[in-house]
Each structure stands twice: as C-alpha cells, then as structure tokens.
Amino acid sequence: MRMPGNISPRLWWWLRAALGIAAIVAIGFLIDPARILQSFAQADAVPLSAALILLLPNLYVQFAKWRYLLRSAGHSAEDGDVLVSILGGFAAGILTPARIGEFGGRLIGMGGHEKNSVLGLVAVDKAATMLMTVSAGIIASAMLFIDGVSISMRIPAIIAAVSMPIAAIEVFLRLMKSSRGDGGGRLKQWLSSLMHGAGKLTRRNLYGTAGYSALFYAVFVLQYLLLVSAFGAIEVLPTVEAIAATLFAKTVIPPVTLGELGIREGLSVAILGFTGISKSAAFNAAFLLFCINVLIPALAGGVAITRDVARTRVDEV
C-alpha cells in the first residue's frame, strides 16, 4: 500500500496500527465486551488446545514447502537457515501491509544465496497459498450464499476449485517459457526479472508446491473450525464454507490496518454470522487465530532475527 502524501513510513505505520486497534475496539463494543468475555469464560478448552497444538504442523508444512522450493531451485539451504528464514518472514510480515515485508524477512538466514532468486521463490510460495485461498473461497462463497445448493451440486464445485490451481500452474509455465531468451518485449523482460530463480522450477516442482499449499490451507481451516467450535455448537459444512469465504474476502480486501486487525474480525463476524454463529464466537475465533498463527510465530521470528544479527556480527569480528 502506498503512503498518502508526504507521510513518513514510521508515521504511516503508527496510523495503521492505531486504525487496527480502533477497529478491534469498535467491533468489540458493537458486539458488547461483556458477551465477548463471557464467551471466552465458557469456551471449551479441548478444541482451543487442539487449535494451538496445530500451530506445530502448520509451521512445519510452511517450513517444508519453503525448503522444498529452495532446494528445487538449486539452493542447498540447511534446515536451521530455512527455519530462521520462515520465522524472519513472519516477524517482518506482521509489520507491513499485505505482509509484503515477508519478502525481505525471508532473506534472513539466506546470506549465502542470491537475493533475486530467493525473492522470486518467495513470490511463488505466496502466490501458491493465495491461489488456494482464492480458488476455495470463490466456490465456498457461491455454495454459502446461493440457496438450495444440494450435496450433488457441490461435486462440480469441488472439481472447479481443483481445476483453478492446475490452470494457473499451466499458464505460469507458458509465461515462464515465453519470457526466456535474450531480448524480447518489455513483458518478457519484466517477467524474467520478476521471476528470477523461479524459472528453475519444473512442472513437478510447481505441483508439489501446490500440494504443500493445499495441505497448509487445510490445517489453517481446521484450526479456524476448532476455534469457532470452542465457543458453541456448529454445523461443520456450512461453517467450513463460511471460513473459506472469510479467508477469501480478507485476501482481496486492501489491508488498511496493521496486521489486518479489525478486517479479519469484522469479516468473520459478518460471514460466519450468516450460518447462525454468534458474533462473539466469530470475533473470538478470528482474533485467537491471529494470535496463534501470526503473533506467536512473529514473536519467535523477532528472537530469530536478533540471534541471526548477533551471529553475523560475531562472524564479522
């Protein structure tokens, strides 16, 4: 997101942070703080604990996907460096709109690797996750908001959701093929520069990356589902559709607040409420999801960055 006028980056950061906090507070008061606190007090500890434990497979899938991408492109990265890179991405991403800082954060721990190549792979990683979110979200939104959709009608929708990533991968391969070679128009040069390093990935690598992304998305949705269920009874299928629709909407709405605070919670209240889930349950689930999957890894990333910087200084001495 561009900074309006002559506002300094630091001031713009604080404005977005203040806007996010204000949005959270406003939504909380619209729902009623007493209801939110009561909902927390009556929450089922078992699904809450399960969602927290699932942070480990969540992080491992992201770690494994990033390691797979790096090694597929010829980077012999050690597991420790890959982990520092992942956590560094969380720490830098939470501070920037649309988590764009994750690109720079992923370079932490990758000191011995060519920067443009790593950045191109980050783009592939992020695009694969976004592709899964958009594909599932479009279909889920249609199933959720169109009345009278039977189970049999959901089968073609699932096929369509699977077909979208396949089509995107094949289009990407064609674009990469057309961007190779010397010369060419501006489009070729732009694609070649943007996807430097990603061009080493084969069709098998891209489908493997899509598989990791689908697994990560499934774990993420399961965490969300568990958190919602902790605050009351739910119908699983409509709730999963509402979760997918919420994640899709959050992806396409411009991130005007820091860490998307308020946006995620507001969408959760509006869309999950469509399935009969209480506002307090939807709000609490979305906020806890942020704390578990974003805030905790970002804090760990801050520690990883500090240690990496200290180690670099020692090596220089």
Largest sheet: none
The tally of strands reads 0
Strand portion: under 5%
Query: Counting H and I runs of at least 4 residues, what is the number of helices?
Result: 13
Shape: globular
The low-confidence runs, each spanning 5 or more residues with pLDDT under 50, are none
Number of domains: 1
Oligomer: single chain
Whole-number mean pLDDT:
81
Secondary-structure-based class equals mainly alpha
What is the end-to-end distance? 39 Å
Helices and strands, in order, run as HHHHHHHHHHHHH
Q: Determine the fraction of residues in helical runs and give it as a percent range.
A: over 70%
Radius of gyration: 21 Å
Describe what you observe in this structure.
There is one protein chain. The protein has 317 residues and is mainly alpha-helical. It has one domain. The chain has 13 helices and no strands. Helix 7 (115-145) packs across helix 10 (203-229), helix 10 packs across helix 11 and helix 12 runs antiparallel to helix 13. The longest helix has 38 residues, at 279-316. It starts with 8 loop residues before the first helix and ends with a helix.
Describe, in short, the structure shown.
By secondary structure, this protein is mostly helical. The protein has one domain (9-316). 76% of the residues lie in helices and 0% in strands.
Which features characterize this protein?
317 residues, globular
Spell out the blueprint of helices and strands.
Layout (H helix, E strand, L loop, with lengths): L8 H23 L1 H9 L3 H9 L1 H18 L6 H15 L7 H5 L9 H31 L5 H29 L6 H9 L8 H27 L6 H17 L10 H10 L6 H38 L1
